[in-house]
Amino acid sequence: MSTLRIATASTFGAINQSMTTVSAVVGTVTEGAEAMQDYVKDLRFKQKTDSTIMRKTYLHKAIEKAAESDLRRREELNKFLNAEENRVEEFKEIYEGYAKLFEEENKN
Fold it and tell me: Hey, where are the domains in the chain?
């Protein structure tokens, strides 16, 4: 009988130790899930912040970029036109020829 008591006590001890281990694993998994949730919340906040700032500044930056591009193109064109005599007149003639193509197309 004492052997049965020892075996039963040993079994209950093993079950208790297993339950303690399972409880610790569940606690660790829960903490990991909470940490992941906090991390995702932080990333979402940063993404929303970046998107808000991007929307606020996008139009301004796009206009600046287009204006800078136009200015650089004009500067290059002026440099090219002023490099030799008669280029301005020849350029105007060619330009007007192209412009007329589109004027006629828009009439139809």
Answer: 2-107
